[in-house]
Amino acid sequence: MSSTLDAPAAPSDFVVINPTSGEEVGTFANATQGEIDAAVRRAKAAQKQWWGMTSDARSRALWRWSELIEEHHEELATLDARCTGKVIRDGLAETRNAARYARWWAGKTDKLYGEQLADVPGRMSYTIREPLGVFAVVLPWNAPALGSVSRTLPPLGCGNAVIVKPSEFSPLSAQRMAELTVEAGMPEGLYQVLIGTGAVGGALVEHPGVDGISFTGSVPTGQKVNLAAAAGFKKATLELGGKSPVVVFPDADLDDAALGVLIGILMNAGQICAANSRLLVHEDIAAEFTEKLVERAARVVVGDPLDPGTQVGPLVCRRQYDKVMDFIAAAEAEGATISAGGGRPVHLAEGEGLFIAPTIITDVRPDMKVSREEVFGPVLGITTFGTEEEAVALANDSEYGLSSYVWTSDAARLHRMAERLEAGVVHGNTYLVMDVQLPFGGFKQSGVNNAFGNEAVEACTQVKRITLRTGEGPLPSPWPGV
Ligand code: NAD
């Protein structure tokens, strides 16, 4: 392995390393407290300007942003590939999708409605929705360009300003995105980016001038952010980790299911919050289904992310690579069997990047570390079940509750499972579906509030109730004689 992959960062600077080549992408300085304060001041001024525009003008700016994202989508995808090893075919799909997110919000920003409330005769009440003000948007590294659009649009679309803190592993695409917002006609300072490690994210979410928080990342960091939000009485949307189950019944189309399960665990080298990392398969088909998975996994193209034929790229950094390898070793030590992969792909020699072959682990028990904790790598653990009851119990036996997947041809069973699974999203006979119009939020430790769909409006606005006396005559008084 090239030694640059392990290059230490200077105390207040950090180095971004390309996980495929080991080359340095750049050295970045952590934003200072003074820069954070200045960003918040600028954001406050820009937010007033933004909310003071007509909703049509905001809509046009968001639409223009979508066009610019589309025009620059290859450039943005390439920045992510350099920083994180995201394969270019996924990066291009994500950046094109980012443009769609902006189009949807361009159509949504002028449709934020309050309600006219039932009130007594002689009095009228209604509500209006107002933006909170300045949002801190703290992002992970697994979909940097898409995240810098999908997580900023709900606050922006609802009239807020955003200060984005991209991951220290992937700062480039968010910086470019900020430039595009100005070109699109949004006020200077409405979309700002602060570069830094977790300390900068912490200082930002705690800042008294920040009014709302959108955080996407791990559960331990999410807990800290949630505490900071509570201390400052700030609304927060938390999109956290997962350990999502995929349940395969004997009546499923097993070829479809095998393809779906593999895509669901291998996309982005498994570095996806909603990856279906726990396969629960009926004991009658376990051997046949595992064979299908192993046979297909061998055909997955792992390699250079910039090659359009590549399907799975490297892990993002040395720390993540070591963590995933430790999970595999722990599973083996606990008595599980490595049925495919388990280490570097044979065709990629040491020094060619942080690659791990598609890994399938069988004989996995629910109490094993690989069943309980988020791996965030191309590692599928397989556990068998006998009855539907048992499948539900196994699926729900987790602190997480982000996504879930069921494969069966029995429609009634699909609905039964959907009602019983403890997860924010249930998929039937498909791998992960995410779209701007579809809510996406976790149950249990996987999150708080929703980042997508109409549901996202709630956490980005506050409701003001307005009551007016409309009745004629003197003010009715409960105090006679006064
Ligand atoms: P992470 O929690 O380590 O970091 C996320 C972000 O938080 C980074 O920008 C980091 O610098 C910042 N941060 C670190 N400490 C902070 C603090 N004290 N206060 C504020 N910000 C702080 O997560 P990661 O490793 O970058 O990303 C992987 C995790 O993200 C996984 O757990 C994955 O499941 C989760 N994720 C969730 C979703 C979702 O929608 N639910 C989507 C993508 C990723």
UniProtKB/TrEMBL annotation:
Residues 12-465 form the Aldehyde dehydrogenase domain. The keyword Oxidoreductase applies. Gene3D superfamilies: Aldehyde Dehydrogenase, Chain A, domain 1, Aldehyde Dehydrogenase, Chain A, domain 2. The active site is at E239. Pfam families: Aldedh (PF00171). It comes from the Bacteria. The keyword Oxidoreductase applies. Belongs to the aldehyde dehydrogenase family. This is Aldehyde dehydrogenase family protein. It comes from Streptomyces doudnae.
